[in-house]
Amino acid sequence: MQPEIVDTPNALDLIQELDDATEQMMAISVDLVGTAEWQEAFDRQQRAFRTWRDYLYHKADEKPPARLLHLA
Question: Percent of the chain scored above 70 by pLDDT?
């Protein structure tokens, strides 16, 4: 029997991207808010946040595998 291959993202990679995107956005000078550079950083941060949020929602909806339900 072949093991089921599940294509799930790595949580550490997702949170690292969110941290990096937020850091990039925070490093932009207030004088550049609203510029193309700021918009690019903002879009990256929002994508990273949505991906992280979707990952968390997906994990919250998962049911534990049957083998974890056997306590004895």
Answer: 75
pTM summary value: 0.71
pLDDT over 90 at 65, yes or no: no
| Cα→Cα distances 60→5, 41, 43, Å | 20, 29, 26
Note whether residue 5 is domain-resident.
no
Print the domain residue range for 45.
11-58
| 52 inside domain | yes
Q: How many domains does the chain divide into?
A: 1
* Under 8 Å between Cβ of 54 and 17: no
